[in-house]
Amino acid sequence: MYGFFHLHKIFYTLQVNACFFVLTSIVSLYLIVNGRYNYKLSVFSIISLAELIFSLTTPGNALRAAHEINKWFPEYKNFNFLNKLDLGISSFGKPFFLDMNILFLLLFFLIFLLTYRKCQNYYVRILTALPFFLNLIIYFGNTMGQSFTYVNGNKRAMIWSSSNLNNLFTELGTKLSLFYPGTWIATLVVLALLLCLIVGIYLSFDNKKTSIFLVILMIMGFCSRLIMGFSPTVWASGMRTYYILYVVIAILVLMAVKELMKSMSLQKNEFMQFGLTVLGICTFIITVINR
Q: How far apart are CA 194 and CA 192, in angstroms?
């Protein structure tokens, strides 16, 4: 148990290092593009990269990882770099875009609503609406019963059926292979949905500095899951490895609500605040009694 806890701390550190590297890289790129980069800041980028490489390559971690592979994930020893990358992407994409989670669904809805109000481009509206409507369709598809119950091949009549997703996104990832383009689809869909969400986040806020900051946060949340593909305890560690992503999404939801309230009347603002307060109280109550 102590060994597992110690390894969990190591890979939590790996997540933090990945987020720090993403932050320093994006900030540096932004400053370079705007001609305001100070090369003294490169020290932070170098340090963050060195920390990430050290976490991935240090011999002590490698020895512990070998032990945990045999214990938790024997198939992991056969994974190459591409398989680990795919595992990280799928471990993010399936729970985030293709499973039902009220917090994630709320984010998709708020971003869709804000973008629809602030962007007049029809095609951009469609792109930024995809994460919300896809998640909603999957939810309703999972709650509906089969039609044509007594007819052979009736599953084909369920146009919103998503029962095959669990076969596509497995504990081994999506089994991505460079030599079989058909295996790229699931990974590309996840990345495309992430891009749609990032575009939506950027367009949702009037203050573009806020938009850029929140986009960076979203990318950091994604990378906190992506880096877990390089850990044999990607599944054994459970929900704890999603903590950073959850905090990021909570921040995005609160910022989106704040942005939405700017265009509301005083009465609607009060109603929104009342609703959020009651929702928070009910969430606390159910958390306490469900323990």
A: 5
Please state the φ and ψ torsions of residue 243, each to the nearest 5 degrees.
-60, -45
- pLDDT, tens digit, for every residue of 92-120? 999 999 888 888 999 999 999 999 999 99
Contact 169, 94 (CB under 8 A): yes
Q: Round to whole Å and give the CA distance between 253 and 63.
A: 40
Q: pTM, whole model, 2 decimals?
A: 0.78
Instruction: Give the Cα separation of 201 and 208 in Å (integer).
Output: 10
Distance CA 23, CA 32 (A): 14
**Quick one: pLDDT band at residue 2, thresholds 50, 70, 90?**
very low
DSSP character string of 166-214: HHHSBTTBT---TT-GGGGHHHHHHHHHHHHHHHHHHHH-SSHHHHHHH
Question: pLDDT digits over 239-272, tens only?
Answer: 778 888 998 999 999 999 999 988 888 888 888 8
User: Taking the CA of residue 52 as centre, how many other CA atoms within 13 Å lie in the half-sphere pointing to its CB?
Assistant: 22
